[in-house]
Amino acid sequence: MAGYHALPLELLAEEFAKLPGIGLKSAQRLAYSIISRPEEDVERFANALLSAKRDIHYCPCCQNLTEMELCSVCADEERDHSLICVVESPKDVTALERTGEYTGVYHVLHGLISPIDGITPDKLRIRELLARLQDGKVREVIMATNPTVEGDATAMYLAQLLEPLKVKVTRLAFGLPVGGSLEYADEVTLFKALENRTAM
C-alpha cells in the first residue's frame, strides 16, 4: 500500500484486503467510506463485528452457525429430523431455506475433501454427522454438496461411509451447471433439485 496515506487508513485498508473477494482498490474505497461516516455509525459497525465474532458458534447438532443453544432449524419440532441434508457451508443452508420447500434438517461440513488443498476428511464435520445417525432415527441423508470435483468426491466418500448404517443416501438432481454453486442458484432450481434427488 502506498506510503502517502495516513497510517491508520493504510492499516484499515490492509485489514479489508484480507477479506475474500476484496482487492486493494476495493479495500481502499471501504477504508475511505468508514473514515467519512459519523463516529456513531463506525462504532455500531465495530460492535456488530465484535458481537458476531463473540456470540456466534456452531450448533452442537448440525454445525450451522447460531447465536442460540441450538440453531432455529434443529430446535424446530415441526421439521422432519429423520431427513438430513448435508451441505458444504452455512451459506448453502440459507440458499436451500430460501426455497421454502425443504422441511428436513441440515448438517454443515464446513468444507469439502480436497487433498490438493490439504483438506482431508478428518478436517470436516463428518464425525458429528456419524454421531447423529447412531440412534437409527434418520431414514435419509441427502448429499447437497456442489457439483464440482471436490463436491462429488465428498458425496461419494460419505455415501460409502454411511453404507453400513443402512440409511438411504440420495444426491440432489442438479439442474445446476457442473462447477456451479448452491449459493447462487435460484429457488425454483433448488426446489427441483431437492424434489428430483437420486439414490447414491
Automatic annotation (TrEMBL):
A zinc finger (C4-type) spans 59-74. SMART domains: TOPRIM. The keyword DNA repair applies. GO terms for biological process: DNA recombination; DNA repair. Keywords: DNA damage, DNA recombination, DNA repair, Metal-binding, Zinc, Zinc-finger. May play a role in DNA repair. It seems to be involved in an RecBC-independent recombinational process of DNA repair. It may act with RecF and RecO. PANTHER family: RECOMBINATION PROTEIN RECR (PTHR30446). This is Recombination protein RecR. It comes from Ruminococcus callidus ATCC 27760. The lineage of its organism: Bacteria, Bacillati, Bacillota, Clostridia, Eubacteriales. The gene is recR.
